[in-house]
Amino acid sequence: MTFNKRFLGFFYISWLIIHYKILNFLKWVWSEAKDFWNLVFIILWWLLLCTPVWVGYALYFITQNAWHLTYANACIVFWAGPFTPLVPLAICLGIGTRQAIKKIFKNNK
User: Fold this and answer.
1) Which pLDDT score, from 0 to 100, does residue 2 have?
2) Which 3 state secondary structure label does DSSP give 34?
3) Chain-centre distance of CA 78, in angstroms?
4) Neighbouring C-alpha atoms within 13 Å toward the C-beta of 76
5) What is the CA radius of gyration of the chain?
6) What DSSP assignment string belongs to 55-92?
7) In the predicted model, what is the mean pLDDT of residues 24-33?
8) What is the pTM of this model?
9) Is the separation of the CB atoms in 24 and 69 below 8 Å?
10) Which listed site, 17, 20, 26, 66, has its alpha carbon 20 to 30 Å from 9?
11) CB–CB of 97/45 below 8 Å?
């Protein structure tokens, strides 16, 4: 009986730690993206990085060629994998783009 309690306790503590880290990450993203334009750039970069997926689905519905569906699904499976940096990459590129634009327009004034 004690093994089951320790076993369940381990998973409960692990779930709490993961939940805490996810919440901290989302709070950090929100603190960085409080500006409307930062959020717009993050979404634009995310859409740009997922372009093969959307284009593949669109071409599949236009041509009904299964090859387009295959590479679109392969691309989304790759980006959805555990070690692929789609979301952090979109966040970094979005915030970096915003900072670069601020710097460019600051120097022009």
Assistant:
1) 53
2) coil
3) 12
4) 12
5) 20
6) HHHHHHHHH--HHHHHHHHHHHHHHHSTT--HHHHHHH
7) 75
8) 0.62
9) no
10) 26
11) yes
Range 7-36 average pLDDT = 75
Give per-residue pLDDT as tens, 29-83: 777 667 788 888 888 998 898 888 889 999 999 999 999 989 988 988 888 777 7
**Chain centre distance of CA 35:** 18
Amino acid at 57: Y
Positive or negative CA dihedral for 7, 8, 11, 13?
Answer: negative
Whether the pLDDT of residue 97 is over 60: the answer is: yes
* Owner of token pair 């993206």: 33
Which residue do the tokens 């929100």 mark? Answer: 30
Give the pLDDT confidence score for residue 99 in this predicted structure.
83
CA angle 97, 99, 101 (to 5 degrees): 70
Residue type, 7: F
Which residues have C-beta within 8 Å of that of residue 35, sequence separation ≥ 6?
98
